[in-house]
Amino acid sequence: MLAGFLLVVSLALAYETDQLTRRHEPLADARVIANAEVNRQLGAAIAETNTRLRCRGTKERTRRELATRIHARLASSAPVPHRQGLEGLGFGAYSAFLESGAVARRDFVDRSDIYGQLDATQSPAVAMAGVCSTIRLAGVRMGTDKPDHFFDQGYEYLRVSRWGAAPLLAVRWGTDSERGAYGLLTSNVFSFADLHANRRGFAFYDELLSRTSGMRRDRQGCVGAVAAFDWADWVDDGFDELLNPSTYGVSVGAAVRDQLALRRDELCAGYGRWGSDVERRRRRVQSLVRGDAGPGAPPPPGGGELAALCGMSLARKGPG
Fold first, then answer.
1. pLDDT in tens, 107-157
2. Beta strands at 77-78 and 247-248: parallel, antiparallel or unpaired
3. From CA 168, how far away is CA 155, in angstroms rounded?
4. pLDDT for 171-214, tens place per residue?
5. What residues contact residue 299 under an 8 Å CB cut-off, 6+ apart?
6. Region for residue 208 given its phi and psi (left: phi exceeds 0; alpha: psi -120 to 50; beta: otherwise)
7. Strand (E) positions, the chain?
């Protein structure tokens, strides 16, 4: 009973995602549509904040209220109707928009993803709820779960860190969540890309009303937008799980390796086209994600698995 309850309440943040399958196929960038929806919801959150506080709150009280309104609008639970059963549950409002709206995405309803053969003994969350769709956002491929981590877990990081005063507490909490109900306990996967999205979301919330934020208070104490939100300012290759790969539990790792071997010809044909670029970007990601994981995190994968599978040595070549 407890395991089932944990699975349902943590589905979205335990969703896995696949940026490897069909990577060679073009995927239109969702940046314009995705930005427009964020800015629409931020405008509503600003109006709600000003109404609730009547523009009379201190800067800190206003910052906390604004963060809370943003979280409520973009991260509150919302179903995805076209995903059946448990597959449609657990999404935040913004991720549900990305799964349902006029956004180019690669879904895996046919379970052609690399996790498609997992059963409930290997990964309960993946077997019962599937994987989320892959989108391309500001040039970066990622699962629709990553904006959910940004707006939901980023807000939790803000609260756990005592509203930004103790950021290391947030990193430790995030690491524990990946070891528990949002990762290893439900999907048997520890996602470093999830932790990166969490931390970038924390940065977004923590800087609200500061000089670098797109939302500030005027002389009357009312909040206003001074610059539009743009995902290009916040996402990087650390959101892509092929470039910032996860660590698997033993049974999931074995099953994924079996899938890669079965699909070797298909994967290696694609890897021959984009492999050198991926390996180059993987090395650069290490500097972007430094500090995302705290004590107790498993060691990240060493990389080079696809090169070994395909019998290629692309790591030292330039972009392909």
1. 988 888 999 888 888 888 787 778 899 999 999 999 999 999 999 999 999
2. unpaired
3. 15
4. 999 999 999 988 888 889 999 999 999 999 999 999 999 999 99
5. 247
6. beta
7. 77-78, 91-92, 134-137, 140-143, 189-190, 215-217, 223-225, 247-248
